[in-house]
Amino acid sequence: MSHMLFARSRLLRRLGAGVLAAFLASAVLAADPPATPAGAAPPVVSPAQREKIEKAVGAGAQALAPAPAAAPAAAPAEAATDTRGLDQEIQGLKKDVVDLNRDLFVLEEELLFPANTQVAVFLSVDIGDFFALDSVQLKIDQKEVINYLYTPREVDALLKGGVQRLYVGNLKVGPHELVAFFNGKGPSDRAYKRGASLRFEKGVGAKYLELKIADRQRKLQPEFEIHDWE
Fold it and tell me: Is residue 75 part of a domain?
């Protein structure tokens, strides 16, 4: 009996949905056959038996129905590509913001300080062995325009060859006078204050002046000059 059941189960696995449905239907009829008198007509399936057959056929079809395919997982390579693309877009936006800020700064300066009235003062330091800069005060036509205090980092940048735009403003055409006061530590680490002045003519167009601090090797003293960039 066990060999027969095993053979039947193997046969059921190979059958299609229609064959399995028919087999289940026959099994239901065999389990609950309708009463048939001797010599009577072939049995007629009762409504209750028909319902059992339909349930059996439905169960067999459901058992043989293929399982739904799982959704494919996102490929790691595609995810990495999307991340790199997003990073590139962010870097591009950052560069656009920097460029926009620079353009706005230039436009603002052109509006505030037109070329016809603009005057700019720069500062540079040459060697700097005999003078350690602390602050610079500027006066134009006896009016103070800036008093700048330096940090060690800024002084170090000047000693490495940097040039600072110390002041920018507007002047009308005509004669003017620039006076600069330099404060710091001179030889022997003593407090040191010196001044320099320059009379210049402001014409049509921008005017550029340079404050230059240099060492005078012969006298072992710092030297302060104002140059006119004509």
Answer: no
